[in-house]
Amino acid sequence: MNRDNAPKTPATFQVKSFGCQMNVYDGERMAEMLNARGMAAAAPGEEADLVVLNTCHIREKAVDRVYSDIGRLRRDDGSRPMIAVAGCIAQAEGSEISRRAKTVDIVVGPQAYHRLPDLIDRATRGEEAVDTDMPADSKFGALPGRGKQARPSAFLTIQEGCDKFCTYCVVPYTRGAEISRPWTAIIDEAKALIDGGAREITLLGQNVNAWTGEDSSGRLRGMDGLVRALADLPDLHRIRYTTSHPNDMTDGLIAAHAEVEKLMPFLHLPVQSGNDRILKAMNRSHTAASYLAIIEKVRAVRPDIAISGDFIVGFPGETDAEFEDTLKIVDQVRYAQCYSFKYSPRPGTPAAGMDDQVPAEVMDDRLARLQAAINRHQMDFNAAAVGRTTQILLERKGRNPGQLIGKTPWLQSVHVTAPELVIGDMVEVDIISAGPNSLAGEISRRKAA
Ligand code: SAH
Ligand code: SF4
Ligand code: F3S
Question: Are 242 and 374 in the same domain?
Fold first, then answer.
């Protein structure tokens, strides 16, 4: 391993997370762990002694970005920080990374990052520091307790991994098999987050609604049971969860949307394509009709629920007519928001070896048409909020003085000017105007909570 000019023992660190919310959560846990080890987060703008790039392998673009980031970490005087590559690229590429980028000192997979302190010691001694194990002893048990400060809207990973093996996707390989964290660990972590100031908790998992476990009296529960228990915690106002798989959308969870007031009316339920032949080739194990039936069931008990989704255009062999089915399902569901991607062949996945890869310009065209349809529905959804009075949780500062940005129950961002309020307040606002990506509001009557 090349250790040119890396600092001996790092005192400060920076964690940069790419990828999904679970990576953001992992990044926070790594930072807390380094803090517990006596290291300090580098101040904004300050160069850190250790830079942790917490990476994502989901699409090729994400991978390219990280390698260019590694190159840019060299300082003007030729020195560089100690560099750790964590996350899903670390898992997928392992020691390949330090061959491709000689300045990488540490490679640590998403299930092994509780061992980061030891890897730092190894790297400091100039030894190879690569750990992509998926140890049976969960990292969660080895991490320090949550820090004393939490954001008003906090993430909590309750489930990891995926056994579904969609043919395009790397997650089952980078995150391993599906596991559910134990009930008590989740409740305790939620309490710590609430004590630290969290008012909203988003439960995370690659297939979060596949969570199962025994409650404190030994009864087997699904995620709806967990949501109900969390809803009993005072000072927690809002519960969300992401990402869900259609096949794990149980009747119990649907019922919770009707019955648990703190469970927000928002459901991220990716469908990927509106065409059954493509869904089959993707190994999605649901059809367009079975997906629509779930949406209908959820809307029957919670008519105002906002639905969001993920789409892939240009999966190998996708014809124009098959793509039209995707536009059709977008119109049928009337999504509040969506993520849409061009298919990206990922090494080691079955789809990467399929015939009929779709040309880039066809993908560009399909993505543009899909996004136009998505934007239209998103604008309609936002426009429907104008005139409504709703509660928002203030989460961050806006660009203008006295401006704060909060979220509605339906996950829309609302800008308000309210110098007397602070981040973490819940407040009622009248929605006065809507744009494609956010709303504007005025404080309605009172500070609610
Ligand atoms: N577990 C979630 C999704 C996790 S990945 C689910 O099944 O819904 C997030 C999104 O990235 C996916 O929903 C999919 O739309 C997209 N994605 C995954 N692999 C991809 C690939 N190879 N190319 C393009 N998009 C991909
Ligand atoms: Fe990937 Fe499919 Fe698993 Fe989602 S369900 S993480 S898309 S393999
Ligand atoms: Fe990316 Fe890994 Fe999440 S590949 S999307 S960071 S699970």
Answer: yes
The ligand placed nearest to the CA atom of residue 310 is: 1
Distance 166 CA to ligand 3 centre (A): 14
pLDDT tens readout for residues 225-269 = 999 999 999 999 999 999 999 999 999 999 999 999 999 999 999
Q: Residue 153 — φ and ψ, nearest 5°?
A: -115, 105
Question: Which ligand is in closest contact with the Cα of 20?
Answer: 3
The closest residue, in CA terms, to atom 2 on ligand 2 is 166
Q: Residue 169 Cα, ligand 1 centroid: separation in angstroms?
A: 6
Please give all residues whose beta carbon lies within 6 A of any atom in ligand 2, as ranges.
162, 164-166, 169, 171-172, 206-207, 245
Residue 445 has what pLDDT?
65
Q: Whose CA is nearest to atom 4 of ligand 2?
A: 206
Q: Number of structural domains, the chain?
A: 3
For residue 62, report the distance from its CA to the centre of ligand 1, in Å: 13
- What digits encode the pLDDT tens for the residues 273-306? 999 999 999 999 999 999 999 999 999 999 999 9
Q: Whose CA is nearest to atom 5 of ligand 2?
A: 164
User: Same domain for 396 and 274?
Assistant: no
Mean pLDDT of the chain: 94
Find the residues whose C-beta lies inside 6 A of ligand 3: 19-20, 22-23, 56-58, 87-88, 170-171, 174-175, 206
Q: pTM of the prediction? A: 0.95
Query: 391-438 pLDDT, tens per residue?
Result: 999 999 999 999 999 999 999 999 999 989 999 999 999 999 999 999
Which ligand does the CA of 349 lie closest to? 1
Whether pLDDT at 174 is above 70 = yes
Cβ neighbours around 402 below 10 Å, total: 12
pLDDT above 60 for 62: yes
Q: Are residues 58 and 87 in the same domain?
A: yes
* CATH code assigned at 32: 3.40.50.12160
Domain that holds residue 31: 3-131
Residue nearest atom 6 in ligand 3 by C-alpha distance: 56
Nearest-5° Cα angle at 303, 432 to 330: 85
Q: What span, in angstroms and rounded, lies between the C-alpha atoms of 14 and 76?
A: 18
How, if at all, do strands 389-397 and 159-160 pair? unpaired
CATH code assigned at 414? 2.40.50.140
d(CA 388, CA 197): 28
Tell me the average pLDDT across 325-352: 97
Select from 204, 312, 357 the residue to mutate for testing ligand 1; criterion: most ligand atoms less than 8 Å from CB: 312
